[in-house]
Structures are given as structure tokens and as C-alpha cells.
């Protein structure tokens, strides 16, 4: 069994504080055996890490790293509802949004940053269904946003 906290430590990561919502919503909601995590943007210590469009202002490699940060923020939101990431049965679905410059079509590679983090932290339980969508703009001008659905232990 994969220990998500040990995996995070191996990666040199720790869960951040849950980012405060920028509008009228909550970071995550549990319904039955699922937790729905709101879209997470690349924020650290209350500050946006980057703004701009991928393929113009932001390289795909930078955006992939930012997507991993979004995923880490998503794990923090998930933990805030569950109390422990040990209760995660599997990451079921990930949706990633990429603010894309005209002609940029590498959205799947960008969102791999999030998918690869979930896989590294949860092993097989981190493999998920996914959508990677190019958009014109995202909140606060960030280049990437990631949301997720996790199946969790009953109760």
C-alpha cells in the first residue's frame, strides 16, 4: 500500500495551506464516497506563481510545473475535507484548463504535470480519467487550473 505522505516527502513536497477561495465556493465538498475538489490555481503562500498564456508568455515546461502545483493544492483541499490522504481510494477524474495562446495544442502535456504528481503520490490509485482543455482566460490571469474527483473510504 502506498503511503501518500511518504511519497510526498520522497518528492521533497509538503502539503500547503488550503488556498482561500477567490469567489463564492468552497475548496472541496464530500458527497457520499466522493470528494469534488474545486479548480485549483498555481498559488503558493497566498501568491499567484505565474500569469500569462501557455505558448506565448509561459513555456509548456513551466506550465507543466504549475499544473503540478495546482495538483498539490488540490491534495491540500482534499485533505482538508478528509483529515488524511490515507482515506483516498483512488483519484477518479482530473480536469485541467490551460490558458492557451492561439495555435497552442499541447494541453495534454501541460496537464501531465498534475497527472504525474497524482501517480507519484498514490501509485496505481492515482491513475485517473482526464480532460485537458484549452481556454482563452483563467481566474487572476493564471495559465493553468486543475480540478479533481476522488473516491474515498466510506464513512
Account of the protein in words:
With 155 residues, the chain is an alpha+beta fold. It has one domain: RutC-like (60s Ribosomal Protein L30, Chain: A). Helices cover 30% and strands 28% of the residues. The protein is built from 3 helices and 7 strands. The strands form 2 sheets. Strands 1-2-7-5-6 form a 5-stranded mixed β-sheet. Strands 3-4 form a two-stranded antiparallel sheet. The chain is globular, with a radius of gyration of 15 Å. The two termini are 20 Å apart. The relative contact order is 0.25. The model has no long low-confidence stretch (mean pLDDT 96).
What structural class do you assign from the helix and strand content?
A: alpha+beta
CATH class: Alpha Beta
Name the poorly predicted regions.
none
**DSSP summary: helix tally:** 3
Shape by Cα distribution: globular
What's the alpha carbon Rg, rounded to whole Å?
Answer: 15 Å
Note the gap between the termini: 20 Å
| CATH fold-level name | 60s Ribosomal Protein L30, Chain: A
What does the secondary structure layout of this molecule look like, with pairings?
Elements: H1 4-10, E1 28-31, E2 34-40, E3 43-44, E4 47-48, H2 60-82, E5 88-99, H3 107-122, E6 129-135, E7 144-152
Parallel strand pairs: 5-6
Antiparallel strand pairs: 1-2, 2-7, 3-4, 5-7
Helix pairs in contact: 2-3
Name some characteristics of this structure:
single chain, alpha+beta, five-stranded mixed β-sheet, two-stranded antiparallel sheet, 3 helices
Summary?
With 155 residues, the chain is of the alpha+beta class. Helix content is 30%, strand content 28%.
